[in-house]
Amino acid sequence: MKVLVAVKRVVDYNVKVRVKADGSGVDIANVKMSMNPFDEIAVEEAVRLKEAGKASEIIVVSMGVKQCEETLRTALAMGADRAILVETETELQPLAVAKLLKEIAAKEAPQLMILGKQAIDDDANQTGQMVAALLGWGQGTFASKVDLAAETVNVTREIDGGLETVKLALPAVVTTDLRLNEPRYVKLPNIMAAKKKPLEKVSPADLGVDVTPRLTTLKVAEPAKRSAGIKVASAAELVAKLKNEAKVL
Ligand code: AMP
Asked: Where does the Electron transfer flavoprotein alpha/beta-subunit N-terminal domain lie (predicted)?
């Protein structure tokens, strides 16, 4: 069974991003970039499925600038078999990514597609749902457990106040939540070996997809700064301030 995993190159989660002076976006020049953490979990899950003898081949796909190749090499070092880079300088929005994934799925015919539940840069949480809809496949989003059988997959989902398990007919789309697994540490020999694994490059035009953005970002702003706190002398003073100044009582 082929498994397709989508991996996005994003600003590393440890970086404190700065909003550009003109408010048009965040500054990513000279900033550390890494694989989206939810996508690392997606790759890890696919590798575990292969190790368990349930998956036969893992194909990782990334879309974006040339440097996404580094992200794909990391996924190959984690255990993916081959990679596809859809190279473009155009800003890709979730619908465009979903359309590209649909075309790749048509070529590769995977039985399972695993994505992160969201990319930590745009926080869209849309691509998995969109590609499932475009393909007409079932979707198990926010997975904390994936139980793959020959023709179905049971996905345990993290929902408000508990867990829900859904059974999907294959082929299906799964998006990962934080507790699904803990991605492995990539060892140096695997990084070296990953350099020799196949990496195919295509363009959105090769796949016949128009990736022109549909949405325009009007403004990006820093969160409001927290004002300094004060000390009160007594509980009575606290209650008075909450009542008269903060007006929350
Ligand atoms: P989003 O809908 O943007 O929050 O992204 C959800 C998931 O879709 C990510 O965790 C990735 O698995 C996948 N994805 C989004 N954008 C890309 C991209 N440019 N290349 C590869 N995968 C992507």
From this structure: 23-211
